[in-house]
Description:
Shape: globular
CATH architecture of the largest domain: 3-Layer(aba) Sandwich
Radius of gyration: 18 Å
CATH topology of the largest domain: Rossmann fold
Helix content: 25-40%
CATH superfamily of the largest domain: P-loop containing nucleotide triphosphate hydrolases
Strand order of the largest sheet: 6-7-8-3-9-10
Amino acid sequence: MPAAFQLESVTRRFGDLAAVKRVDASIEQGSQVAFIGPSGSGKTTVIRLLNTMLAADEGTVTVFGQSVSGLGAGELRRLRTRIATIPQHLGLVPNLSVLQNVILGKGGERGTLRSIRDLLIPRKSDVEAIHKILERVGIEEKLFARTSTLSGGQQQRVAIARALFQEPEAILADEPVSAVDPARAKDTVQLLTDLSREHGFTLCVSLHHIELAKEFFPRLIGMRNGEVVLDGAPADLDEADLARLYQLSDEEMMTDA
């Protein structure tokens, strides 16, 4: 199976801080991968490198077989239409309806003018497609509801529906369950992994919840201090190594993550 994403000796700095250091990783198309590790370990930076919103300072990022270095703005936009991202705070517009928020999933593909028109006068085909997606994620009755009136768990499902409406080849989710209770977190992670298998898209998720990662993902990539320190199937990873991944030194505990 070819790689959807490949990082080769990738380093990304923010000022004097190297958020990611010499990271190597190859993620197969259609696979499900969880990035785990403490806050400040580099998980979010890796997600933003994979979706091309950040450029590497050193090394090579390859997406769907194409090196992203040197791509022009138009080429990057086209590449990003093949990747849906669910940010940590979901990126929804509270005052818009669920339907309108999901329509925004195709904003990158359709452009500004057509997106505005679709928000104001949704096409019947879009409404039907979105209703079907909302049925799959369990909130079809919220199609015309204002997004701000929904619970946190329901808003997560709107963000997932928006990603699905984009019809991506990959979905990247950055801490998608950080703001909900354990039961809803488990339901959301299970939904994402089930959808990945159903639709065949690559799924990369950053998680603090190590037990959820072990239960639902066939591959875990553990990060600490910007480096990959673990990479493998949950059954193949030593429990002591997983525990040490989250043990902070005195110096790390004093650092603002």
